[in-house]
Every structure is written in C-alpha cells, then in structure tokens.
C-alpha cells in the first residue's frame, strides 16, 4: 500500500484545523461545568460563567442568575419563571420557546438573543440592551418590549 505523503499531510492539517476551531475555541467550551452543576442542583449561580452552556429544557424556576454570563447559551424550552437575570449577559443566547413569566432581566444584555416563540409575561426588562433581539412569534404581555411603530407622544 503506497500512501501519498502529501494527502496524509493534508488530512493531518485538516484534523488539526478542526480541533483548533472546535476543541480550543473558548466560546464553545467556556461554561464552567461545576457552575452548571451548581445551578442545576441549587438554582443559584450568581455571577457564574455559563457561556455556551446547554440548559435546554431545564426547569430554572426562581433561579438566581444575577450577573451570570449566559452568552451564547442554549436555553431552548427552558422554564425561567420567576428567575432573576438582573445584569446577566444573554448576548446571542437561544431562548426559543422559553417561558419567562415574572422573570427579571433588568439591565441584562439581550443583544442578538433569540426569543422566538417565547412566553414573556410580566417580565421586567428595564434598562436591558436589546440590539437585534429576535422576537418571531413571541408572546409578550405586560413587558417593556415594544413591537412595531406605536404612537409617539409630543
């Protein structure tokens, strides 16, 4: 069997490039596993690094996530009822079909967060940053998020 050394080198280079992109990318592996476990066990993780964490489908009712880093986290179908996300970084997080009734997101970073099909009832978003927030088919009630062009008052 004659193996082409150039082809082998190309495959090795590709493998190294893939590992470098996936295996060593801090944004993909930034969540602190101990802090994820702490959140799931206690419901408290104030100031934790949960960036990129997969919390899809979790029941985080009343969770204390003040100032937590949830940048790029997967929160699809997560129940955040009554959760305190004051000052949390949810930039680019996926909250599709999540439930955030009575949640507090005061001063949170919701830039580029996906809240499609989410339920936001009585959610406090005062002072939150919402640049390029995705709200496709989102149910919003008694929450400080305006959709469309409302009337301006002089």
Automatic annotation (TrEMBL):
It comes from the Bacteria. Residues 1-30 form the signal peptide. Pfam families: Pentapeptide. This is Pentapeptide repeat-containing protein. Keywords: Signal. InterPro entries: 5peptide_repeat, Pentapeptide-BTB/POZ_domain.
């Amino acid at each position: 069997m004659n193996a082409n050394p150039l082809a082998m080198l190309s495959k090795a280079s590709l493998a190294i490039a893939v590992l470098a992109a996936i295996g060593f990318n801090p944004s993909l592996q930034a969540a602190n596993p101990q802090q994820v476990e702490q959140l799931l066990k206690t419901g408290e993780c104030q100031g934790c690094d949960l960036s990129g964490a997969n919390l899809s489908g979790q029941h985080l009712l009343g969770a204390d996530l003040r100032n937590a880093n949830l940048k790029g986290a997967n929160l699809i179908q997560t129940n955040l009822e009554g959760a305190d996300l004051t000052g949390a970084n949810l930039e680019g997080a996926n909250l599709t079909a999540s439930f955030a009734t009575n949640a507090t997101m005061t001063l949170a970073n919701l830039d580029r967060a996906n809240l499609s099909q989410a339920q936001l009832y009585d959610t406090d978003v005062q002072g939150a940053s919402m640049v390029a927030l995705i709200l496709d088919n989102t149910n919003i009630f008694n929450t400080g998020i305006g959709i469309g062009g409302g009337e301006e008052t002089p």
